[in-house]
Predict the structure.
Amino acid sequence: MRKHILLLFILFVFNLNAQDKGWNITTTDVNADYTGIAIANGRIGMLSSKAPFQIKHIVLNNVYDVDPNLEVSQILHGMNFGNLDVYIDNEKITQNNISNWQQNMNMKEAAFTTSFQFKNKAKIHCTVYALRHLQYTGYIDIKIEPLKAIDVEVFGKIITPKNFKTPKHKFQILKDNETTMPILQSVAVSPFEKHKVATSGTFIWHNINSSRENQRPELHHKITSDYENTLSFKKHLDKGETLEFAWTGAECTTKDFDDPKSESERMVIFNLLNSRDVLLQRHKQEWAKLWEGDIIIEGDLTSQLDVRLALYHLYAFGRGDSNLSIAPMGLSLQVPYNGHIFWDTELWMFPPLLVLNQDIARSLVNYRSNLLEPAKQKAINYGYKGAMFPWESDDTGEEATPPFALTGPFEHHITADIGIAFWNYYRVTKNKQWLKEKGYPLMKEVADYWVSRVTKNTDGSYSINNVVGANEFAPNVNDNAFTNGAAITALKYAIKAAKELNLNEDKAWEDVANNIRILKMKDGTTKEHANYNGDIIKQADVNLLSYPLNIVSNQEEIVQDLKYYEPKLAIEGPAMGKSIFAVLYARLGDAGNAFRLFKQSYQPNQQTPFGALSETAVSNNSYFATGAGGMLQTVLFGFGGLHITDNGIEQKNAILPKQWKSLTLKGIGPDKKTFVIKP
């Protein structure tokens, strides 16, 4: 009996360790090439660094500055409150004088920890949080364990980028009765003067009452340059006397606040006067809610970690209470796309979020709804009706694509992609009030646009001419397969939406939808565009007609298109195309080819040391949220067999790769269903 209990206990511990491994990515090679990952909460994003106590930069969601030279907006890299300088016995801690360096990304709790030993003097742990419930704040928790008596000096810093204008720095101790609140603050104007940015910071000591001035270390303020504002303290530690403290910062702008200066102070004070346990418990609770939508892979730890990292980033880059969208690089980088919003959101990131987290999905569609009026104006400007959405969108809703790029004037499928996403949101949520107030008004304008956009041919069919399709290697073509297919789908969905609300749809919608041309080659292969002759393609285009559009639905035709276009995919192109191929092979019951393409859709793009995704195999910009959306679609809509239908989310013909023991999809749809796929 005792042996039986012991065996059960060992199995229980083993399972706990296995589950823990599925949530943590750890690196110990400090000399490896380093591509950071984002610690983000949907509003601010901090990019990790290998250097002790350093954050590479901070990205501010939906805060755009306009460069008059480039003539386009750019998402703002804000003031960096994530860097500290730490000295022990008057020697600064750097990469060159530490050992046993380790970094760990705990995806379950969205906590990024760096640990190391400084000479023979101290062990140090530093954990960075972008607090989920306090969306404009970050929290850096530090623990110093002396191995002998040491003197510690710590500098908290606010670093203002050198392209910011008129930086002003100060330190003040605010008082309310017996409570004292030391606040370091920097205020500056964004590089092109669109916004005022205010950042505040302070230290929090965990083992003393930090609100009482006589019980905390003495603070010293120094403005070290026009762009660096510091606050420091000194502390002697005896062996065994652990020092635990936090540095917290809040960053606000005139994009979101009339008085960002005062609001950033209040947020820091809120953190200062709440305990670490309270703040971090709330943060973890919010992430626990997000992880109610989860993907569990048994038998393949590598795939589990890769999939979780992708899903972590989509959750980290979005918020259900924001009505904001997600850029291709999320909140990790300003480059290469200036933080603008593309079709990447609607076609790649939105479907996984729609089935796993309807709150974030609602923010993504509401972002477009809130910018409907500029899209209607753009249609008028270009001689069309309805709404014509920009290829690249920022906070204005106007076209934000650089003028030299042909995608701005000609990549029109974005308008259909948005209409499709809107109907899919309704299909999953069945929120008729939303459909009436936000969904249908936009879908109607999208349908009207396509009626005005088509050209009628002599045989009664319709063409869509002079576009850039999903394959951007072929600009200014006629009858692009995906553009035409997306327009057909958006028109048909608008008809369904009208019927759902008992409204009379425009009869022209049905006529155009039923007669837009989908071209074929002589052997029956779907032709990418009117002049396509077998050229290499940037990414999937024709195959999108099979998934997600379901226009090419005959199995033989799907296979024919797959075999023709897979060899045409460019090596240097983005990997999402292979995700589409993987979904289709899985739905055809070919687990081998599906798994091969699943791995090819992201593995070549992974960067050391955490596996962050870059856009292509020959670049290292990360984290590429679009690619994350693609690989997650393979798991959910391919192997998992999920389909978004007019009846909601349904499972059909799930299939398991031989490399996996089981696949569990948790928190699916509004009813939070669980689907388990086993051999």
